[in-house]
Request: fold
Amino acid sequence: MTVFHNIAEAPEPVAPFSHAVEADGWIILTGQMPTVPGAPDAPLAKGVAAQTRQVMENLKTVLHGLDLTLGNVMQCRCFLTDFERDYAAFNKTYKSFFAPGRLPARTTVGVTALAVGALVEIDCVARRGPAA
Reply:
């Protein structure tokens, strides 16, 4: 059975999608933007580090709404609009959200643009079971 999740505490979707879709214990989370929950029109934070923190907090909110944590995340796909400029700062901020030695598999791609003028977007795949 496939379940489509929308989490009330998460940011308002910027397009027609569910926050997450679940089947057989696997959860696919839609890419999160650096928007603030409850304030979809608020200006985005300045810089990739601040935007990455907001994206990670938004992912945590979606996961929390599903009774999961970042410890359940198996894989992330990360998108940066200015890869060369932002990659190092992005990595430092991203890594701080995970327990040492417990980093998910990851792909990071440079893209020409993201919704809402964001510098970063991250989606992920999680699995039900004991968190790391």
Residues 3-127 form a domain with the 60s Ribosomal Protein L30; Chain: A; fold (CATH 3.30.1330.40).
